[in-house]
Amino acid sequence: MSLKYESTLREPLVDGVKDYHQVTEDIISPIEGKPGKLWYVGFLISLSLLGFGAFSVFWQIYFGVGVWNLNKTIGWGWDITNFVWWVGIGHAGTLISAILLLFRQGWRTGVNRAAEAMTIFAVMCAGQFPIIHMGRVWMAFFILPYPNTRGPVWVNFNSPLLWDVFAISTYFTVSLLFWYSGLIPDFATIRDRAKTKLRKLLYGVAAFGWTGSTKHWQRHEALSLVLAGLSTPLVLSVHTIVSFDFATSVIPGWHTTIFPPYFVAGAIFSGFAMVQTLLIITRKILHLEEYITLGHMEAMNKVIVLTGSVVGCAYLTELFMAWYGANPYEFATFFKYRAAGPLGWSYWIMMTCNVITPQVFWFRKMRRNVMVTFVMSIIVNIGMWFERFVIICTSLYRDYLPSSWSYYRPSWPEVGFYMGTFGLFFTCYFLFAKYFPVIAVAEIKAILKTSGENFKEKMEVYEGESAEQFAKAVHHEHAH
Amino acid sequence: MAVKNFVVGLFDDEAVLFPAVKKVRTAGYKLHDVYTPFPVHGLDHAMGLRETSLHTAGFIYGITGTTTALTFMSWVFNVDWPLNIGGKPHFPLPAFIPITFELTVLFAAVGMVMTFCYLCQLMPGVKKHIFHPRQTDDKFVMVIELTEKSNAEEIKRFLNEAGAHDINEQRAEAGWWYGRYDKNDEDIYARPANA
């Protein structure tokens, strides 16, 4: 009789016949072996992308921000589009690790480690854009409120751009701490079974001297819970503040109160899509299908269809308000230059990818189909990239003064910079997948006896019992 | 920290471990610790450990962050350099909320993690005695400290009856020190017990 009882009606979270040792073997042994050919190919592609990105950034810093195709009318283009896109992707990791922890969703244990890693790498990529787009990057420290010899002249605490500095850096720090504190016990597991001296040394340093003492676990649990409680409002605040970058301005198309919830929903939407993309590949290559099951993918697809529909409602609300608000400029932005006009195509790509196609996930068969999920996850991220592009560029390219109307397409350093962040992201992810436990080993063990397939089978005996009998048995169990 | 003598027993199943912990406490042996590969819920209560106060520490750090942010921004805008920004007030509380919130979270999170590491004595380079290499894998390792009043053989028999296996006696530094996990740590046990 296990210590906690879970109905057999719930799908098992870990498939196959497992015990605690088998879980360790399954998740840790890929770290101890040599990576496959695919890993090297992928890693080299990522590294070369990163190199190209570094070159593009060098080019931009050397010749100035003029090498980008931005102009007086369109001051924000691919740079801020990519910034918002990457930050948004990061949000799913925190949602899985924090919000689902508070909601006691057991399935998060299979995916939280990789999702949190994705958050950290995505925020690292996002942070590049606002810094590089300043032009004179060597002045980037001016955004920090530090005592200086110019008065001191302080930063403007009223500015949403400064709020962003605080939000993104706090978000990165807290996510990193949350992720690393979860990794410590798993590093200790690798350390204690290490066969080579170097591995024992490196993972010994990384494990901080963790032993698994009950008191330490008690504190660890308390820490995780409070960090989850802190991260939950934090993740909502971060994209809210990102949306303030737009919403507090007076540009038609940006100046709307719907932005914070709409941005947060969009962020979770695109983030879950990225988690799916990464995990479908990871589970296949590392043979973790028994830990990241179809049930996990279905649960995430449910989140995708929900948030996708929330985003769809937001698009329609925006259109309605543009008409109902009786502001001719806002009406023109939405109906003449966003849904139609020279950049109208981007609006319809966004609508198709974000609102129409995710509706396939209303069908269970589709939610549990790996190929459909993989293709959809990429479509959603294309759509969400276009959403940011639409919000930024279609609001700017037709402004109040027809003589300054403009069009925008990126130059190669802008595209190269974006490609470079893909390089950074995947370089980090490949290293993570090779050297870190991609699934939280200790957390899987903690749910194994309630949600593992072979343990759930034993529960059928108790399912047949009446409630009184069961209560009696449990009482008896705890009496001695 | 001192080098002490311990009797160590391994358990395979938490359902056997819980009654064993209870028996150890009733018998009055000095339960040094139980090492588990994952957080076993209720084990801290079974061992009679008190609740952790880490939450309270987190709250205090958070409040510190809140006051730091609010006082600093108000000081900058009102005392140090009162600048007229588009005619906006010098104490715009709503505009201060985002940064105040972020600093609250930042202080609470960083402070708690540092407190956690301090309390558990965790740091890169810290080395602690591992009673059994599988205590971070799949075994629940119960460690009973030998005192002047206790008899090693008796405790071994006791653990065997309680369901433990691979019972052995170890002489170890129970605390922590700086060391390397790839280095042999024999020398530390050369010191006399309870020095």
TrEMBL record, chain A:
Transmembrane segments: 38-63, 83-103, 115-141, 161-183, 222-242, 262-282, 303-325, 345-363, 370-397, 417-436
Xref: Pfam families: NrfD
UniProt keyword annotation of Hydrolase present: no
Keyword Lyase applies: no
UniProt keywords, alphabetically: Cell membrane, Membrane, Transmembrane, Transmembrane helix
Name the record gives this protein: Polysulfide reductase NrfD
The species this protein was found in: Chitinophaga varians
Family listed: Belongs to the NrfD family.
Locations listed in the record: Cell membrane
GO cellular component terms listed in the entry, alphabetical order: plasma membrane
Lineage: Bacteria, Pseudomonadati, Bacteroidota, Chitinophagia, Chitinophagales
Automatic annotation (TrEMBL), chain B:
Classification via Pfam families: ActD
Record bears the keyword Membrane: yes
Keyword terms, alphabetized: Membrane, Transmembrane, Transmembrane helix
Top-level taxon in the UniProt lineage: Bacteria
Organism the protein comes from: Chitinophaga fulva
This protein's name: DUF3341 domain-containing protein
TM region positions: 57-77, 97-119
